[in-house]
Structure formats: structure tokens, C-alpha cells
Amino acid sequence: xxxxxxxxxxxxxxxxxxxxxxxxxxxxxxxxxxxxxxxxxxxxxxxxxxxxxxxxxxxxxxxxxxxxxxx
Length: 71
Prior knowledge:
Keywords: Ribonucleoprotein, Ribosomal protein. With 71 residues, the protein is mainly α. It has 3 helices and no strands.
């Protein structure tokens, strides 16, 4: 997913996507361990997407906290 697409999601949707990608990463690692993984670069892509999701979720949480404090 692109950053723009992720930034358009709210926190709940980001958490849901995070769980989906973690499950996909688990499955990819399992496939790799038993020698059935065709596209090994997908593991790297999924890890980076998870990192993007966590980064954007953290930014949104801090932004929400700031608005509560200022508000």
C-alpha cells in the first residue's frame, strides 16, 4: 500500500490492516520455512508495509493527543 492510501484510513482501519499484514507475514514465513515460497521479496514488502502502518498510526495517535490537550 502507498503512504497516501494509508494516511486516508482512520486508526481503527489502520489497526485492522496491521493485523491482516501480520497474518500475511506469518503465512509467508511459514511457506518459506517449508520451502514453498515463490516470491521471497514479498516478505520484505510486507515488513515495510507493517512499519509504515505503525508509523502512521503513531502519528495519528500523537496528533489526537495534541488536539485533546489543546482543545
